[in-house]
Amino acid sequence: MAAHKIICWDCGKVIDDVYADTCASCGGLLTIKMDLEPLKNMRPKDLHKTPIGVWRYAPFLPADPMKKVSIHEGGTPLYDCSALGNEIGIKDLHVKYDGANPTGSFKDRGMTVGVSHASEIGAKVVGCASTGNTSASLAAYAAKAGMRCAVFLPSGKVAAGKLAQAMFFGAKVISVDGNFDEALNIARKLSEERSLYLLNSINPYRPEGQKTVLFEIMDQLSYNVPDRIILPVGNAGNISAVHKALVELEEIGWITEIPMLTGIQAEGAMPIVKAFASGKKDFIPEEHPETVATAIRIGNPISGRKALKAIYSTGGCSVSVTDAEIIDAQKLLGRTEGIGVEPASAASVAGAKKLVDSGIIDRNEKVVCICTGNALKDPDTIISSCAPPVRCSKDMDEIRKILSQ
Ligand SMILES: *Cc1c(COP(=O)(O)O)cnc(C)c1O
Ligand SMILES: [Zn+2]
């Protein structure tokens, strides 16, 4: 396992309580400082003996690959999307499709590392609050590790596929009368009481696994650094993890340029967009987040300050898209490229289109949109936004008539 320590992201203090989720001295966010020295004598291809996937990048990860809890996460496709690019006006557009992970979202990247760590420290019960995908993923990894699992979900606001997964993998599913931010407060209290080991992205081990989406993109582009990477932003763990990965690659000299990190939020849940618009380093939480993209229906993003730093320090930006733009982008991606993503993921594509239209993205940029989750996660939204099936009798003439229309 690569040497590492947990430190406070705000004050730098070393943290030795494995259950801590904030700094005891300043209340700051935690992060992991990896010892990257061994990587400084290596090249990217030195890792290619291991197949592409999260554990190829073990020297960047704070967990022992020999003891990993894994169901083959990562190694997802990076699609060349010229048809979609034509539609929205970008010549060199790629989609990193993290909906191809074992439970259908990028959360598996963080969860394999987070649950491996939980197993190392002997945790028996793991838990999380979730808009859906974190719970689906944790439930699967807890099953694989033989741990008990409790998940806290905002009542009535979790897409069918995600809820089904958490139930199916045997987690205790608790439906909280409240939104995600409130469910997270409950899970954090139980973690403080040591009733469970918390695996939300406030846990510093989770984002470490999520760094690997960036390492894979670089491998898949043969280290031709894109100009821009666009992600949906909910709790803001993923964009922060991608930034951390870039900083680490720069530190070991594998890259010299850093893509502009661009964070997209839904209009009904956009604290980061507002903070960015007013040039602030911190954001004001929103009380009543609302959007069809339930995975980013979050008003108080835990890693929001990290996300803002990621955006400012890479020269990126943060903009919002409407629910209608999200649904249009979801369909456009499906119908031009055959890629099915859930609404939150489509926010990155909707954001790309909006930024081209407003002249912020140049059509010659090399752009990667990260699409975070699978279309099958949320069938209800798709069914209500597409034309219904055509009903007919078994009469062949009637069927021929319908087909010719
Ligand atoms: C969790 C999730 C997001 C948001 O990611 P953050 O790290 O919370 O910003 C976006 N899309 C999907 C599909 C997700 O599951
Ligand atoms: Zn601190």
Mean pLDDT: 97
Radius of gyration: 21 Å
Q: What's the helical proportion of residues? A: 25-40%
Largest sheet: 6 strands, mixed
Largest sheet strand order: 3-4-12-9-10-11
- Ligand types: pyridoxal-5'-phosphate, zinc ion
Approximate strand percentage: 15-25%
| Distance between the first and last residues' Cα | 62 Å
SS-based class: alpha/beta
Order of helices and strands: EEEHEHEHEHEHEHHEHEHHEHHEHH
Number of strands: 12
Number of helices: 14
Instruction: Label the overall shape.
Output: globular
Report what the structure shows:
The protein is α/β, with parallel strands linked by helices and 405 residues long. It has helices at 82-88, 107-120, 133-145, 160-168, 180-192, 205-210, 212-220, 237-251, 271-277, 304-313, 323-337, 343-357, 379-385, 396-404, and strands at 4-8, 30-34, 78-80, 92-97, 125-129, 148-154, 172-176, 197-198, 228-232, 260-266, 317-321, 366-371. The strands form 3 sheets. It has a 6-stranded mixed sheet with strand order 3-4-12-9-10-11, with helices on both faces. A 4-stranded parallel sheet has the order 7-6-5-8, with helices on both faces. Strand 5 (125-129), helix 3 (133-145) and strand 6 (148-154) form a beta-alpha-beta unit. It is built from 14 helices and 12 strands. Pyridoxal-5'-phosphate binds at residues 105, 107, 133, 201, 232-238, 295-296, 342, 344-345, 372-373.
